Amino acid sequence: MEFKQLYYFVETCKRMNFAITAEALYVTPQALSKSIKTLENNLGEKLFYLNKNALILTEFGEFFLPKAQNLLAEYYAMRNEVANLSNNYKGLIRVGIVPSARNLINADFLQKFMEKFPETTIDFTQMSDESLKQGVLAHSLDLGIGVYPAIDQTLETVTLCKSGISLIMNVKNPLCEKETIRVADLDGQELIVHSDLYMVEKALLEQAQREGLNLKVRLKSSELSLTRPSMHYFNCVAISPTLYTTNYCFSKEAMCRNFAKEEKLEWGLQLLMTKNKAQYTKVQLFVESLLRDIEERRHREDIFAF
Question: Which interval of the chain is the signal sequence (predicted)?
């Protein structure tokens, strides 16, 4: 039993006339009749009979017609699904990314992904964490790589990495004498805060207010390169994710200290998507590939090789 035979049978049932059906299908009446006859032989039952030159469905024909229609409907649905699946490997993936996450996307990973899916284009846009979340919710972005934790419960999140919080300060700062830092130790200090640490900044300032501490933010920046000159010029304490502070730990001019674990201050990056939204196949593939790449790099300990 072939698709064409089912199609010819259903089309004939719409018109109940071989000649008219053959004309509509752009085949000869003989070809149509032969196809119906072959289908009847395969089924072992007659589908039509003639009554005074009128074409009439047999009892079996009436039984078989809705089944043939269902089979054709399933075929068309499957064909459309396959076509959509093919299209979903193509097109644009829109990704919003906060400044501190730009090194999370590895060039080798992108090259391999683009080679595997050459008809897919990835558009990365650097933006603030808040703008990124709004873009994902408004569907102007397919994905976002933002700051952990996300407060908005309407977003689905996948944690990509977490880090403790470190303080970078001039070696002459008295805080260097401490092994770990408590929030209370920052009383009277002026801070330089990376813009993606707004959750940490908020927690620090709220705690400082509760404890009556004199603490203020002197400078905010999305560029870590501004930390060193600003730290010395303003004599400030810079707050940074621990994983970004490697270069400063070996500097003669600066020293790093970590917050005490009791302060429970942490930072991280996470993947953001809308909940209960069927993601396009190309987006699913990108997410799975990115998570796999991050895990492999984590095992090689080069996930944040700045």
Answer: none
Whether 276 maps to a domain, the answer reads: yes
What is the distance between the alpha carbons of residues 111 and 182, in angstroms, rounded to a whole number? 44
What pLDDT score was predicted for residue 305?
A: 41
Mean pLDDT of the chain: 81
Q: Collapsing DSSP states into helix, strand and coil, what is residue 194? A: strand
Residues 81 and 97 in one domain: no
pLDDT at 302 over 90: no
Token pair 């009892």 in the structure block, residue: 59
CATH number at residue 64: 1.10.10.10
| Coil, helix or strand at residue 217 | strand
Give the model confidence (pLDDT) of 201-250 as tens digits: 877 888 888 888 888 888 877 666 666 676 767 778 888 777 777 655 55
Has residue 305 been placed in a domain?
Answer: no
99 vs 38, residue with greater confidence? 38
Which of 41, 56, 87 is at the close of a domain?
87
Among 87, 105, 125, which residue terminates a domain?
87
Q: Is 80 exceeded by the pLDDT of residue 183?
A: yes
Tokens of 77: 């649905």
CA distance 219 to 250: 24
> Which token pair is 61?
């024909």
Say what the pLDDT of residue 58 is.
93
- C-beta of residue 90 within 8 angstroms of C-beta of residue 282: yes
Question: 129: closest CA among 57, 187, 200, 228?
Answer: 200
Distance CA 124, CA 275 (A): 21
Q: What's the token pair of residue 76?
A: 């068309």
Residue 57 has pLDDT above 90, yes or no: yes
Is there a single domain that holds both residue 95 and residue 179? no
**What is the pLDDT at residue 306?**
34
| Residue 261: inside a domain | yes
Q: How many domains does one find in the chain?
A: 3
Q: d(Cα 167, Cα 191) in Å, to the nearest integer?
A: 9
